[in-house]
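Before the break, one more example. Copy the sequence into your notebook; we will annotate it together after we see the structure.
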Amino acid sequence: MADAYGHPEVDGEVRDRRSTWLLVMVALIVALGAGGTLFTLLRGGGVSDTATVVPAPAEGVVPEGYLGRWEARVDGAGTQRLTVVQGRVGERVLTLVVDGAGHHCVFTASLARKPDADGTLRLSAATVTSGAPRSSCAPVAPTTLTLTPDDHLKRTGQPGTRAVTYSRSGSD
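Here is what the structure looks like once it is written out:
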């Protein structure tokens, strides 16, 4: 026998199939969510409060000859260690560490555009990422990197500034 709305009567009560269906769906969604969370945690994908190191891009436009670590000793300015990694236009490709009498500065710069036809790299202005004392470290104007015929790296800034020539560093 059915009531006025077409629902079957069971012991005088009307069974609402829609609410039963809704409860089953909610229970299924909760179970799937819990299972997904458990799977993620068991596989090591849990929440971490440590910094993540992002690897350098595997592909990019920086010519192979520039990649690696370079070092220069500059009279009156100390030691400069420069690292060039692979990257695309707009990505950080250069880290420069300058250690002198009483100061330590770390700079980074991005590739400003694709390499010139001769392979010359044009970099954005370098930003200071750390320094001690910080007041001794000032942002560096856009620079140009070129490889010399004798396998050195030459970094030049704006006209009137002194170019620095780097040799390959043995510590990679």
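Residues 37-57 have pLDDT under 50 and may be disordered. The first strand starts at residue 9 and ends at 10. Try to locate both features in your own notes.
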